[in-house]
Amino acid sequence: MQAKDILARLDTSFCLKFLSRMVQHKSYSQSEGERVLAGWMAEQMQGLGLEVELTPVEGERVNAVGRLRGSGGGKSLLFNGHIDTNPVTEGWTVDPWGGKVDDKFIYGIGVSNMKSGDAAYFCALKTLIDVGAKLKGDVILTYVVGELQGGVGTVALLKQGWRADYFVNSEPTDLQALTMHAAAFVFTVELVGDTRHLSKREEAVDALVAACDLVPRLNALKFSGAASPEHAKINRVHVGVMHAALGKELHEWRPPQVADFVRIKGSGRYAPGQSDEGALADLRRECEALEKRHPGLRASVQLESTAGRVTMPSFEVARDNPIVQAINAAYEEVRGTQQPTGAITPPGFYGTDAAHLYRMGGMAGIVCGPGGRYNTMPDERVDIADYLDMIRIYILTILKICG
Q1: Which positions ≥6 away from 85 have C-beta within 8 Å?
Q2: pLDDT at 259 over 90
Q3: How far apart are CA 223 and CA 41, in angstroms?
Q4: pTM score
Q5: Considering the domain 3-180+314-402 in this protein, what is its CATH number?
Q6: Where are the domains of the chain?
């Protein structure tokens, strides 16, 4: 059967109903609901005839994994996505767990991040099984928990020995091929000034004024040592918290006095080839320059400790890698245009389990999934056309990689 004939057999009604059923599971991260959904995914994979396991994660959490064994002689392909979701926020106008489908979108909490990607690779493999396609290489479907805790579910899979020749991580990229994303860290800056009453503020060292000078410079910062302009593209710093008052206890009841203490908290992103140490050195240089512009000010910065917990490093794959070429070709066949590829933003600022699959698992892969435009917002939704095209692209990618 030709590839175009397989695509023509895609059961779009089933695909929409399947995703709607996934959305109807309230699978908040670290809740019983994610375990229930993992069990449901295992049942659905068993229904396809896959070899299925519920594998342990820390605590009582589990991942669902299914394998379709090939006949031999082909490359293996692992799909990866998380089933835990963020909580519902204010502002929703549709039922977050209703799985509503209209003529353009499918709605629900987690549908973009990332149940539509999860459903897409299930439906892709189901379509190939339904038409009787015979694959040479194995296809492994992984449905993990704990991505929102740094990727503990995927790390557990890797420690248990799960591997393939290539992987596709289905985080929401609006169907673009993300070949690189940043590593993340959190930092704290403390500024110490010299207080006076407002009547004598000219004599003071105003830590709050200094902070107002520093924050836009931090937000504009690019870290040194980027390997290329594309790597520099996913450098970013953002200050999200600033608290100024009197003393390290940050007393607020005496506003007539000049603030002598500020605590700033922010997050940074840097590309493969850069490091925590280099980023910290760049932040320190900004603090030293601030001290010169504000004589008498003392500024310090430190990175938040990550000891004892899983964090997501950076990810990178060469554009000429077979998995990138396969998904590029599949996209072009489905959509008739070249696929945007590279350090695409905003997804390039995300953390994903692709980083663990790449670094800890030693696998080459790509991040490419439906959703993104309406991610992490009220009435989270995914374009139906994107979801269905992603399934078609995954079908062609499986055929290309697995033979």
Answers
A1: 27, 28, 29, 109, 110, 113, 115
A2: yes
A3: 42
A4: 0.93
A5: 3.40.630.10
A6: 3-180+314-402, 183-303
Structure tokens at 276: 């925590």
Q: What's the pLDDT at 331?
A: 98
Higher confidence at residue 273 or residue 148?
273
Residue type, 169: N
Cα dihedral angle (154, 157, 161, 166), rounded to 10 degrees? -40
Question: How crowded is residue 152: how many other Cβ atoms within 10 Å of its Cβ?
Answer: 23
Task: Return the pLDDT at 307.
Answer: 83
Q: Tell me the per-residue pLDDT of 140-183, one tens digit each, with 9 for 90 and over.
A: 999 999 998 999 999 999 999 999 999 999 999 999 999 999 99
Q: Is 183-303 in the same CATH topology as 3-180+314-402?
A: no
Residue range 83-98: average pLDDT? 96
String of b and e for 120-149 (b: at least 16 CB within 10 Å)? bbbbbbbbbeeeebebebbbbbbbbbbbbb
Give yes or no for a contact between 59 and 47, defined as CB atoms under 8 angstroms apart. Answer: no
- Does CATH number 3.30.70.360 belong to domain 183-303? yes
Mean pLDDT, the chain, whole residue set: 97
Could you give the CA distance from residue 57 to residue 34 in angstroms, rounded to a whole number?
12
Q: Which amino acid is at 129?
A: I
CB burial of 59-96 (b: ≥16 within 10 Å; e: otherwise) equals eebbbbbbbbebeeebbbbbbbbbbbbeebeeeeebeb
Torsion sign (Cα): 345, 349, 354, 358: positive
Interatomic CA distance for residues 141 and 168, integer angstroms:
10
